[in-house]
Amino acid sequence: MHDIDTKSGAPARDVKAAMTGFLSEFKNFQSDIQTKLMEQESRLTMMQTKSSRPALSVSADVEVPHQKAFSAYLRSGDDDGLRSLGVEEKGMSTQVSAEGGYLVDPQTSATVQSVLLGAASLRSVANVVNVEASAFDVLVDHNDTGAGWSDETANAGETGAPQLERISIPLHELSAMPKASQRLLDDSAFDVEGWLANRIADKFARAESVSFIAGDGVGKPRGIMSYATIANDVWAWGSLGYVATGTDGDFSIADPADAIVDLVYSLGAQYRANATFVMNSKTAGAVRKMKDADGRFLWSDTLAAGEPARLMGYPVLICEDMPDIASGTTAIAFGDFANGYTIAERPDMRILRDPFSAKPNVQFFATKRVGGDVSDFAAIKLLKFAAS
Description:
Elements: H1 10-51, H2 58-76, H3 80-88, E1 102-103, H4 106-118, E2 127-130, E3 135-141, E4 164-170, E5 172-176, E6 179-181, H5 182-186, H6 192-214, E7 229-231, E8 240-244, H7 257-266, H8 269-272, E9 276-279, H9 281-287, E10 299-300, E11 310-311, E12 314-318, E13 330-335, H10 337-340, E14 341-345, E15 350-354, E16 361-374, E17 380-384
Parallel strand pairs: 2-14, 7-8, 8-17, 9-12
Antiparallel strand pairs: 1-15, 3-4, 5-16, 6-16, 9-13, 10-11, 11-12, 13-17, 14-16, 15-16
Helix pairs in contact: 2-3, 4-6
């Protein structure tokens, strides 16, 4: 019988070595698992960060669906998209339920407003305000609050109180009715929104320009030429003061430029800094030939693109709705129109598609509400072609 060698300890060493190897491999396994878990957590964190980032253009998210739905309505009369927008988008009311029709999409509306602003009318120099009501009230202080000097011992006297007057500018409905054939609307290459914006803007610009100059205030804005005129030396509030040329129906033959100078200085100094001449092309043709006593032209054309011509250093607005030079006409206006004339309008524009009234064409009935009136009678002066 043989004895087992227990002194050498070989089996114990084998077990210990095996256990050590197992623990080492298990630690490596744990390390790999932990690394992969960290990588996975990092990827999840990155995905959550991306998903929580704000949209680059909130307006695009709102306007694009409206624009697509609006295009579908114009082309085929399909108003499902516009109806759903009015329901789903809180704060967006596209439908004009009381009168029928829908609000024009923001891009088309902005195009119309841009054209109107660039049109040759008083809008480009007047005070334009957006309102939500049916009228806009302007409070005008006829004269500043009185003031006086005093010392420590003397009694201070009463000063004059301001005289306020309320001018109410009602808003009137301005409309345009462009029409197009259904075949043209069915053509996908046809830019129906651009076409509609240009047609509406053209109609609106013409109607506004006439009203801001000569409108009688009945169903339309009241123009500057609708008010009574009175010689500037005896001018009173509620009328427009004028300076006469000294010759009936023309400028003075001897000193034609004197009338322009007199017109400029008939306006108060507080208004002259922001003043503009307004006249039509025919009148401008006569004025630009004038020279001062030293032989220099009063009229100067600017070299900068988009800048208006200047007369005696003041910009000139060519508005074709101003009257021609004739006996007794007030063919030139000069004033601070930002103070003198106020245009009030609602910012929204409405459109109604009518496929029945103009068959085989489709007619679009576009409306907006706008009003205008003189808000400061002291800020505008006129040149009258008369002897006195």
